[in-house]
Structure formats: structure tokens, C-alpha cells
Amino acid sequence: MTANSGRIAIAGAGIAGLTAAIAFAAHGRRVTVFERSTSLDELGAGIQLSPNATRILARLGVLPHLLPIAVRPEAIEIRRADTMRLIASVPLGDAAERRWAAPYLTVHRADLQSALLAVATQNPNIDIVTGASVTDADFEGQGVTLSVERDGQTGPVACDLAVGADGVWSTLRRLGRSKTGHYTGNLAWRAMIRTDDHAGIDLPPMDRVTTVVAKNFHLVAYPVRSGSALNLVAVTRGPDAPERWSTMGDRELLLAAMKGSSPDVLRLVDMAGQWTTWPIHQVAVDGPWTNAAGFALIGDAAHAMPPYAAQGAAMAIEDADTLATAIARWPGDTAAALIAFEKLRRRRIIKVSARGAFNKFAWHASGPVAMVRDRVLKSRGPEKLAADLDWLYGWDIETELGKL
Ligand SMILES: Cc1cc2nc3c(=O)[nH]c(=O)nc-3n(C[C@H](O)[C@H](O)[C@H](O)COP(=O)(O)OP(=O)(O)OC[C@H]3O[C@@H](n4cnc5c(N)ncnc54)[C@H](O)[C@@H]3O)c2cc1C
Fold first, then answer.
1. Is 222 a residue of the active site?
2. CA within 20 to 30 Å of 58's CA: 40, 137, 253, 320, which one?
3. CB of 238 closer than 6 A to ligand 1?
4. C-alpha dihedral over 290, 292, 294, 298, to 10 degrees?
């Protein structure tokens, strides 16, 4: 690969990197994705995909691969962990598709990865090189030269555009002198319950996303894999943890953090299989995310956010699509495309991060603040709560480009 060959190199074959590869290829560009791992297996956890993400996946041809195994929940419900009293409900299912013109889905991450790979590997414009770590980058002059290490050998890869989609602990973010991430002091706990193994036992309804909230934690439960499994994600305070994704979690610590919760909540934690913990790291949204030589950061590498709005992957998908669209919209002027990309994405990411911070404040409230929260949510009702999400779930690239 040489500079000025029109080639695009992407570091990382996660959600951001694979979506970007598919989006660039859809505009006729040749792309090579370098992935550090030797295999592209995803971890055993779920993910919520809101309509702003599924609309893009539909346009890129990924959705047909995902729909047969995804679940289309009927609602998001928020309940108090102590009493399980319903405090808010947002209609999804057909209502979501009517309102936001795309489905709200809950999926297993491995199924999303498989759907992205099915599309990427069929496309002759996309090469995926596994076991290949991007270790350095030279942004001088026109184009970028990456150093790629494979089988113990490091070689240069010159390209017109390099994309850092290498996740929360991004090497390319550090090389590009963007801010490093920091540990938020919160741990995410994840577990999966196979519904077959628990026939006859009360599980939360399998046709919705159930969020239970309390001062010290929240727990989200939703179905995945055509309803054959229930995915659980809890967030608690936690000790600092090293830079890695998954560690075995001690169920007793989780139960202690949930003290005072309804027996329904505690039973769910108890009946789940192995819990794993993830330290939640965050990357400041002020960047920079681009370099005029031909470089852009996308997804968690640019702006990893805590999962309170369930939007990290959706933002990675939006970033990928916006970048590919901007590069196509300004042919031969990568610098102008990158300025437009960064401007559009910063506005959006700041707003979405603020929504996540607000959710955290509301979900983990206690005492009088929690009482006010419950009253306000009740008074707004399902329709108004859905309307409050129009700016988030109704996002569309063409409307955004029109605002430039
Ligand atoms: C508990 C929890 C729940 C969440 N729930 C949701 C949700 O419901 N909805 C939602 O939208 N988001 C959710 N998210 C956020 C979402 O998981 C992330 O935002 C998303 O996975 C980021 O994707 P990515 O491709 O940017 O990064 P990653 O998925 O981390 O991918 C990065 C890839 O780069 C590779 N890589 C790393 N370094 C190098 C290198 N030097 N060279 C080459 N390759 C490299 C890695 O191996 C990896 O494959 C959640 C996050 C957490 C922690």
C-alpha cells in the first residue's frame, strides 16, 4: 500500500472499524483493516442498538444478517430496585419503527460482529488482516505511514487515510497526542441467563428492556439471541482495575452493592451464570480526533463513554458512516472532509455524553431527588418520553450534513 494510492487503512476490527470498512467500500474505496487479535470472536455480552444505529446498518446491508437473531423489544421500562415499582416506560417495537423509521434491537455482540463480518468479507474492496497490531504512525506531510507488527516483524504501511478504531485503550489516540482515557470509578458487571435452564422460574419479561435503578447501582436486563438468553448488565462503584476488558466478578460483592433491593433483583443476580466485570473508562470529548495529513479517530478510541445512554456502539457506527460520507462528499480534499467530520461529530458526541451523564444522575438518585424524578417521569408519560428521544434516535447523516 502506498500513499496517494487512494487506500484507506483502519486499525481495529471492532464495531467502529468494521462499520467504517463497509461504509468506505460502499463509496467504492479500497480498505485494509488491521486487527490485533488473531481471531475475531466477540465476548459473551449483549448490546442495545437504537434506531440511529440500525438505520445505518440497514443502509449498509448489515441489518438483514442481524434481524433473524435479534430481539425487537416492545418497551424500555425503568423500575425502582427496592420495590420494583414502574417509574417510566418508553414504547418501542412497532411504535419505535413508526416514530424513528428503524427498529430498536437488542443483540448478542457476537451476532453483531458476525453480521458485520458477513458483509465485510463478501466485499472485494475490503481486506481484513488479523494478528496485526498498529504500533506507530507518522503523520508528517501528505498521507500517513503506519507501523504494523505481524508475526514479530514490523513494517510500514503508507495510506492516504488512516482510521484509528482501536478502542478505549487506543494506541493511535496516544500517538496522535489526543487525551488519554481515565477510569470512572465504576465497574460494569455482565452475565447471561439461558432461558431454557430456568424454565418455570420468574424472569423479567422477555419482551422488553428492564432497567432497575437505585442509589448505588443500576441493572439492565434484556433478551438476546431470539429470546433464548437474558443479558444482564449492572453498574456499581468499583476499585480501580487494569487496562483490560474482562475479569471474573465476585457475585457476593455485587449482591452487597445491591443491598436493600427487592428479592426479585437479588434472585436474578444469584441465578445468573458467571459474572464478569469491566472497568468503565472514559475518554474526554475534546479530542483532537483528526489530523489534516489524513487521520481520524472513531468510536471508543475517540470518545469512549460510560454506558448510561447505551450509545457507545451507536456513536461508533455514526462516526464510521459520517467519516466515509464526508470523505466521499469532499473528493480530493481530505482536510476539508476531516474538518467537517470533526465538527459534526463533536456537536453530537457532546450532546449524547451529556444525556448519559443525566441518566446516571437520575438513575442513581436517592431521597428527595429520587422522589422528584419519579414524579416527573410519571407526569411525562410514555409518548412524551419517546418524543424526548427524537433528537437521539432520529439522527440522520443527510440532515446533519445540511447543518454545516
Ligand atoms: C457494560 C457496557 C455496556 C454497553 N452497552 C452498550 C449498548 O447497549 N449500546 C451501545 O451502543 N453501546 C454500548 N456499550 C459501548 C460499546 O460496547 C462500545 O462503545 C463499542 O464496543 C466500541 O466499539 P469500538 O469498535 O470503538 O471499540 P472496540 O470494540 O474496543 O474495538 C477495538 C478493536 O481494535 C483492536 N485493536 C486495539 N488496539 C489495536 C492496535 N494497536 N492495532 C490493531 N487493532 C487494535 C481491538 O482488538 C478491537 O478489536 C457498552 C459498553 C459497556 C462497557
1. yes
2. 40
3. no
4. 10
Ligand 1 pocket member 44 (CB < 6 A): no
Catalytic residue among 104, 222, 308, 393: 222
Q: Is 76 in the pocket of ligand 1 (CB under 6 A)?
A: no
User: How, if at all, do strands 290-291 and 153-159 pair?
Assistant: unpaired
Residues of the chain within CATH 3.30.9.30 domain(s) are 184-281
CATH among 1.20.140.10, 3.50.50.60, 1.20.120.140, 3.20.20.70 for 8-77+88-181+283-402: 3.50.50.60
List Cα–Cα distances, 284 to 33, 302, 311, 313, 320, in angstroms.
26, 8, 16, 17, 19
User: What is the arithmetic mean of pLDDT over 289-304?
Assistant: 95
Distance 378 CA to ligand 1 centre (A): 34
CA nearest neighbour of 277 among 384, 345, 190 = 190
* Residue 132 alpha carbon, nearest atom of ligand 1: 43
Q: Where in the chain is the domain with CATH 3.50.50.60?
A: 8-77+88-181+283-402
Summarised one tens digit per residue, pLDDT across range 181-208 is 888 989 999 999 988 776 656 777 789 9
Q: How far is the CA of 15 from the centre of ligand 1 (A)?
A: 7
Most ligand 1 atoms within 8 A of CB, residue of 33, 38, 43, 47 to mutate: 47
| Mean of pLDDT over the chain | 91
Tell me the whole-structure pTM to 2 decimals: 0.95
Residue 5 pLDDT:
62
Q: Which three cell numbers stand for residue 295?
A: 487521520
pLDDT tens figures, 275-291: 998 889 999 888 799 99
